[in-house]
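job 3f2a | input accepted
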Amino acid sequence: MQYELLVGLRYTRTRKRYSGRNHFISFISLTSMLGIALGVAALIVVLSVMNGFQKELRARILGVASHVQITGLSGGLSGWQEVAKEASAHPQVVAAAPFVNAQAMLSSGLGVRGTLVRGIIPRLEDKVADIGVHMVEGRLDALVPGEFNIVLGSELARALAVLKGDKVTVIAPQGLVTPAGILPRLKQFMVAGIFEVGMFEYDSGLALIALEDAQKLYRMDDRVSGVRLKLEDLFRSREVARELMASLRGDLYVTDWTRSHANFFRAVQIEKNVMFIILLLIVAVAAFNIVSTLVMAVTDKRADIAILRTLGASPAGIMKIFIVQGALIGVIGTLIGVVAGIVLALNIDVVVPFLERLFNTQFLSREVYYISELPSDLQRGDVLVITLVSLVLSLLATLYPSWRASKVNPAEALRYE
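job 3f2a | predicted structure (417 res):
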């Protein structure tokens, strides 16, 4: 073992015969180490939670929305079967389903709510969306044409105070022109099911009916609002949308989920970047505490440095001794932080409910946030970047004090010894 490493490791350890000054230096080293560990652990946990939010948000939005959507420029789409067939010929498209989107007012005996009504074909809708697996009451295939059944989001059903089997009145905004004036079109539907996808936006503002019932209610004849597509790789949706726009015939408009929900994902990504920068400052502050630790150590070890110099140690060797001492603090702090951060990120679903029960509060209210649970998605790349940045900051913090140590004059240091 080179003497620089041996002496550097010796300086890092605390011995009983050390003076109070040495104990104080060791205390500052310990706090610097714990500060780095805390900052690294916080960075790993926060970025894992932000990744989890991004992943969960994408899964829940695309479980109700679509990867790619084809609509007519005139507001309606005729011959959707042909459009779906042409779109399905693309190698990335795995499923296609028609839909009718329209606004409506839902009324029950105890409440009135405005909502989005979507007409669907259940067997096709199950192939492009995940609503069927989120049914808490009833089944999606209960939407049989002509029976005028309706499936409501859980929050919407709660607001209307209805259960499966109850009646709701759907009021269409387009009116009927009669000699007595314009009267609203309305139809009574029976609640055949309730779904809960876990996003308040959809659970409180979406109602599903059979496609043919929607066409009759909104007088669309055989037209639909558009066709929804599910892709094999959702991250290629923009590329697929461009290719379909060029290949499909007719006056069609093709859009994808990155455009229709871009603000959500852009906001999460920006928040993740900002949180990384903010929490990195914690690591930086803790890392640069190593500067004060080494400056005090250099002052305390001036006599030792002078003796080493007289024994033939070079200035570069003295510099390496204190680089080893400071780097060891950074390495140990980083490793502790990485282990603690990984353990906490992998068990966030246990820790957060425990804290909520302990403080009798709910961190994420369903009425305020899209996602009411705290998800976590630990990514190897984030852990690697955080570890490297922490080690680099720790190493940089050792350079100036180590350089000062290498400039100690042996004669001056030993004059009063």
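job 3f2a | The chain has 15 helices and ten strands.
job 3f2a | closed
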